[in-house]
Specification:
binds flavin mononucleotide, four-stranded antiparallel sheet, alpha+beta, 4 helices, homodecamer, 4 strands, 140 residues
Amino acid sequence: MLVRLMYASRATAAFSEADLAQILKTSREHNPAEGITGLLCYSDGMFVQVLEGGREAVNARYKHIVLDKRHRDVVLLGYEEIVERGFPGWNMGQVNLHRLNPALVLKYSETGRLDPYAMSGGAMAALFREMCASGAIAVS
Amino acid sequence: MLVRLMYASRATAAFSEADLAQILKTSREHNPAEGITGLLCYSDGMFVQVLEGGREAVNARYKHIVLDKRHRDVVLLGYEEIVERGFPGWNMGQVNLHRLNPALVLKYSETGRLDPYAMSGGAMAALFREMCASGAIAVS
Amino acid sequence: MLVRLMYASRATAAFSEADLAQILKTSREHNPAEGITGLLCYSDGMFVQVLEGGREAVNARYKHIVLDKRHRDVVLLGYEEIVERGFPGWNMGQVNLHRLNPALVLKYSETGRLDPYAMSGGAMAALFREMCASGAIAVS
Amino acid sequence: MLVRLMYASRATAAFSEADLAQILKTSREHNPAEGITGLLCYSDGMFVQVLEGGREAVNARYKHIVLDKRHRDVVLLGYEEIVERGFPGWNMGQVNLHRLNPALVLKYSETGRLDPYAMSGGAMAALFREMCASGAIAVS
Amino acid sequence: MLVRLMYASRATAAFSEADLAQILKTSREHNPAEGITGLLCYSDGMFVQVLEGGREAVNARYKHIVLDKRHRDVVLLGYEEIVERGFPGWNMGQVNLHRLNPALVLKYSETGRLDPYAMSGGAMAALFREMCASGAIAVS
Amino acid sequence: MLVRLMYASRATAAFSEADLAQILKTSREHNPAEGITGLLCYSDGMFVQVLEGGREAVNARYKHIVLDKRHRDVVLLGYEEIVERGFPGWNMGQVNLHRLNPALVLKYSETGRLDPYAMSGGAMAALFREMCASGAIAVS
Amino acid sequence: MLVRLMYASRATAAFSEADLAQILKTSREHNPAEGITGLLCYSDGMFVQVLEGGREAVNARYKHIVLDKRHRDVVLLGYEEIVERGFPGWNMGQVNLHRLNPALVLKYSETGRLDPYAMSGGAMAALFREMCASGAIAVS
Amino acid sequence: MLVRLMYASRATAAFSEADLAQILKTSREHNPAEGITGLLCYSDGMFVQVLEGGREAVNARYKHIVLDKRHRDVVLLGYEEIVERGFPGWNMGQVNLHRLNPALVLKYSETGRLDPYAMSGGAMAALFREMCASGAIAVS
Amino acid sequence: MLVRLMYASRATAAFSEADLAQILKTSREHNPAEGITGLLCYSDGMFVQVLEGGREAVNARYKHIVLDKRHRDVVLLGYEEIVERGFPGWNMGQVNLHRLNPALVLKYSETGRLDPYAMSGGAMAALFREMCASGAIAVS
Amino acid sequence: MLVRLMYASRATAAFSEADLAQILKTSREHNPAEGITGLLCYSDGMFVQVLEGGREAVNARYKHIVLDKRHRDVVLLGYEEIVERGFPGWNMGQVNLHRLNPALVLKYSETGRLDPYAMSGGAMAALFREMCASGAIAVS
Ligand SMILES: Cc1cc2nc3c(=O)[nH]c(=O)nc-3n(C[C@H](O)[C@H](O)[C@H](O)COP(=O)(O)O)c2cc1C
Ligand SMILES: Cc1cc2nc3c(=O)[nH]c(=O)nc-3n(C[C@H](O)[C@H](O)[C@H](O)COP(=O)(O)O)c2cc1C
Ligand SMILES: Cc1cc2nc3c(=O)[nH]c(=O)nc-3n(C[C@H](O)[C@H](O)[C@H](O)COP(=O)(O)O)c2cc1C
Ligand SMILES: Cc1cc2nc3c(=O)[nH]c(=O)nc-3n(C[C@H](O)[C@H](O)[C@H](O)COP(=O)(O)O)c2cc1C
Ligand SMILES: Cc1cc2nc3c(=O)[nH]c(=O)nc-3n(C[C@H](O)[C@H](O)[C@H](O)COP(=O)(O)O)c2cc1C
Ligand SMILES: Cc1cc2nc3c(=O)[nH]c(=O)nc-3n(C[C@H](O)[C@H](O)[C@H](O)COP(=O)(O)O)c2cc1C
Ligand SMILES: Cc1cc2nc3c(=O)[nH]c(=O)nc-3n(C[C@H](O)[C@H](O)[C@H](O)COP(=O)(O)O)c2cc1C
Ligand SMILES: Cc1cc2nc3c(=O)[nH]c(=O)nc-3n(C[C@H](O)[C@H](O)[C@H](O)COP(=O)(O)O)c2cc1C
Ligand SMILES: Cc1cc2nc3c(=O)[nH]c(=O)nc-3n(C[C@H](O)[C@H](O)[C@H](O)COP(=O)(O)O)c2cc1C
Ligand SMILES: Cc1cc2nc3c(=O)[nH]c(=O)nc-3n(C[C@H](O)[C@H](O)[C@H](O)COP(=O)(O)O)c2cc1C
């Protein structure tokens, strides 16, 4: 059974570029073997990640992520059983957002800064789709 | 939570181009900081304005506007919670309508003159969308 | 409140081209001032007219038309409150049908001759839309 | 083809109970022979009437009614082709409203007084249905 | 045109039972004459009010209310054009909530305390309907 | 923002009645203060739990639960934003299932034994609803 | 494949009660063997009949009926493939209508007399259903 | 009232090209005067014909056709009241199918040979539409 | 994954009551252990059976049944993935139909005799549901 | 009656290219004569096949296939009555998949390897459609 899981979290104060690189490396090692695909978005000290894959695999990996000390306030934005993946071609962890288009963020939020904690899961997903479609996401 | 608010009002008799310029200036100062976007339409001594943004911000600003002595008979045409803005790219106050296309107005009203007080909110919104789409709105 | 009214009628035996011209002239004088737009179709001694505009204006004008001695058997084919006009750009009375495309009429009726009395309002409206779209209506 | 026609009108200043009785008498003579059924509501100097029957019959009778000098400002509220009558058992003209329930009227209008001219056809029809259902209509 | 308007606000610190009584008295004097009906709910220093009536009347009264110094943070929860009132029989101002059923509030909110500022307009309306239906609203 | 979260897990081999009692006690202490309601179902060494409440509160508590050493293989079965709770009156932790009705379980699964890991979230939710409705859940 | 066929026809001038009895007798002999069920309605010199059964059987029988010299102007009112019969328990030919309820007929037609030729198939079917439901059909 | 009637039949053993020509000639003489349009398809000793026109006209002509000794086993495939014709431009009888595209027939039937008796009316109509669209029908 | 499978078959000429008893006995032994439930209907030398259970289990058992020499012409009438069983409480094999209600069968078929080969899967399922609901199925 | 049947199976250990060639040869001989079309997909020791055709023909052939010793674990993925074939132009057996695009498979499954046993029939059908559309299927 395929599922899609989306969550938001806040990086800890000490979080650095090196930490991000490390997470991406880890993800590239684990995810393919576990059949997990998705998208990791980092911006303004906040993460939003989409994980897609088998139900057991995604939940097992999500348990690790929830416990990871490099971020906190992990909050699920959405979780659903799916028939087909939305991000089959993306290898998780390859995405590093340095600068989000504020106009695009503004369209879905109260201010031009991304704050997934103030958004419904549906709005976040819509913003994600539009970011992907518009190429606003810069691949590192 | 994002909301969209649309209202109509009548300019006071003494209302001048200078007043309009002043309103636009004020709006350009306030709105971006409050995450408010939208559209201000002025024609034949009547205003129709759309305000989009966070629920608190829009209501707080609307309170100021309702009290503004430069217009009267402020009447809500619509108010709804939205997932995405319809006018994310417009900076409020930039729009100044010198001449509305009567044929277009006629399509949604009983006569060729814009009278939002005689229209339902839905008709006003449809007219707005068509004005935007057709470029009938002249940006000052 | 905008409404659309459609009716059919039969010209009296004595009806002439001059009568038609007179009706068109009258319509051009009255309708714009009353915010009434629409379409007048004359063919084979029968009229079908669409009137769009404010509810009071359309009904007041319709009362005059019903009483007009130049036609009889006036029968409503449709009447509805609308949000937007279907014929905002047409000035009533400009249309004079000398020859309807029988193939087009046949599509919606039992014979190739237009007989609105044998048609539902919906079929008549569909025929009208197709006539407009296909340019089958000859503007005098 | 069956149709349903609903209109509103204003009684002339001189309109009296005797006039109403006369209209009812006339209706009782004409309508059954023409297959016309419906409802006549009189209140506060205003009429709202529903006529149901064959398309030709209803339009012919409506022409007479529109011309009747005992009322003015006749405005169509609705007109539609129907498969079955809504008032098959009512003999037109039997209904005489001396007193409408204001609470019921208030539910569909801005004030407690019936003003069909300020109502959409849909609201009027809904009020009618509720009046019938609740027995608020007093049969003379 | 009928509209329904719902808003929330916070009573000022000094707000007293006497103030509430005064508001109710004022409402009873104004609203019937203006064709305004609805519901005023007061609980834990917060108001939620529903106003129904003609578009102009409701907006004019709302302007007064927004300016009223006895409360602040007035935020619209909903506004829509309606065909029929939901509260035609309630005289505004008769309702005084001393104690809301926490179980009922909990059903629609994150905690057992009513906080309309943390709720969508739809949830607030649903809570309102259930309070009315269950008799949870105590009429003073 | 209210959410509903449902998961399944397997009790560790050593899990005892005393452990269950301890979990119930803890839940009774924590959940009300956090505005969390729901249902805990224990059967055949497996848990299925529904948690309802504010998004932050539910996620924070879920993090604790995921880490709890008394069970493993925690797998999300469903997660959604809701307008109203489905279990507002249940105090979490009061439910202890000694014996599930196999006929009922069979209706939604391949065998008569409850195996949430082999079920979709939708089927699990349907089974839950029917268990509640039929009183099949024994409250300890 | 099951089908339902409905038609109307006019009895010839000479048609008598004896003819009707003969038709009923014939139908009782043929129809059961051919798996044909339905309803025969005779009123005011007109027939409306519903035939249900296998596609071949119904068409073969209909050919005989079309040719029958005892009636003329046979016109199909409806024909459709069905999954289940609407009249499985009626033996064709048992129904003899001496007197139709005019109020009921009026509901679906322009006058109180049944004229299937002036009705759509849908209206005729609706009338049929209501006649059956209300017991208005007298079984001979 | 416009109707569309579709039937299938089997040509008698002796049926020849001359017979077909004769039918086409007869149709060209009768149908236009009766307002009947449609399509006659002949293939492998079987006919499928669509007749469109007024209800009385189509039924009267169908009676003649059912009785025609040149074919047998006439079976209705469909009959419905329509608002607009599907074949307004075709003069009945002009179509003579010498060779049907077996691939196209196979798409809607169990074998590559057209057997309307083994098809539902809906499948036959779909095949017809696709034959027309693809030009598979050869006009004689 | 749960599935529902329905098929029809013809008993071989030699099929006896003893054979049926044997099948029932076998089914009672196998099915519960495999989580298979359903219904076996035997009438006029034909079987219709519904099998519900896990996808693998149902298919494995169906393979045995297809090969069973006691019947032939096994034809699938339906197969679908389901969320909940329709026959959770029936132990397969308990049902023995000596006499089907012909009126009920007639409702869904061309004659009063059950012939699943001449029926669509949907009609067969509808007949099944009605037989169950009406108690027409006699349990041996 | 047309049906579409889809199943999965596992080739036996000894299965060779020669076996596949033999199956294709057999299919090319049998299927056209039986009006059966479809698609046979072989990959990683597993088959997925779609069979379309008459209900009897498809079931008779499926019985042979289920018994074929060259594969095992035959499991139906879908079966439905259809109006038109999805693969009318494919001759069964011509397709031989040496290499499936893992990215495409990953989109519908938990890992990059095709495992129809872990997929719902709907997901398998969606994958099939996309493989056909993208040309991912290599025709031998
Ligand atoms: C925001 C964030 C996203 C992460 N995403 C992934 C991921 O997609 N895959 C992964 O394996 N680890 C991810 N990690 C790292 C995990 O939290 C964890 O460190 C890793 O799974 C540990 O794996 P291991 O201890 O089994 O090697 C992420 C960490 C953070 C903070
Ligand atoms: C028709 C109309 C539209 C206005 N729109 C805005 C607006 O979008 N933003 C804004 O800040 N002020 C707007 N104003 C001005 C406000 O009424 C008010 O003057 C202003 O918000 C006062 O701000 P301040 O006193 O806090 O500086 C508008 C005034 C009018 C008459
Ligand atoms: C078929 C027909 C269509 C007409 N359409 C219009 C019309 O659209 N507008 C109009 O003013 N008069 C129309 N007339 C003329 C009116 O019947 C009537 O003569 C006219 O409104 C009289 O106006 P007056 O007496 O107020 O000048 C029409 C007449 C006929 C016979
Ligand atoms: C409000 C109103 C309603 C009327 N309703 C009817 C009616 O339903 N039937 C009718 O025959 N006349 C009705 N009349 C009277 C007609 O206007 C007209 O006087 C009558 O049809 C004249 O008929 P006659 O001159 O052909 O006898 C109504 C009049 C008024 C003012
Ligand atoms: C929460 C709240 C609700 C109120 N509701 C109403 C109301 O429904 N009707 C009303 O007339 N005044 C209401 N008032 C009072 C108005 O704010 C205002 O005092 C009153 O309309 C003033 O009327 P006046 O100055 O025209 O007499 C309300 C005030 C508050 C604080
Ligand atoms: C199956 C299961 C369900 C639980 N449900 C709850 C719960 O609803 N609320 C709760 O506070 N703890 C629950 N717990 C216990 C938590 O895992 C954890 O022990 C507790 O939240 C720790 O709280 P504390 O360390 O903050 O006191 C549950 C544990 C298990 C194994
Ligand atoms: C209005 C009408 C309805 C009839 N209905 C049936 C019928 O349902 N079944 C039937 O067998 N004959 C019916 N008949 C009689 C047939 O027209 C025809 O006489 C009969 O089928 C001849 O059968 P036979 O010549 O094969 O014996 C009906 C005739 C009429 C005029
Ligand atoms: C398959 C078939 C189709 C026919 N289609 C028509 C047709 O569309 N129009 C027509 O007038 N006659 C058609 N006919 C001929 C009629 O059956 C009949 O011969 C003709 O209507 C007789 O007309 P008449 O005797 O009134 O001159 C068709 C005959 C057959 C066998
Ligand atoms: C119409 C029919 C229905 C049957 N239904 C079942 C069934 O539901 N369960 C079952 O185990 N066998 C059923 N059987 C018997 C099987 O065909 C087969 O004999 C049996 O599964 C053999 O099991 P075994 O050889 O593994 O013991 C049925 C046979 C027939 C002819
Ligand atoms: C995966 C698979 C697919 C097959 N597909 C077909 C097929 O489409 N048509 C066919 O005739 N045989 C097919 N066969 C072969 C049949 O199982 C069987 O061998 C064949 O129908 C025997 O036919 P015969 O013994 O009647 O000659 C297939 C076999 C396998 C293993």
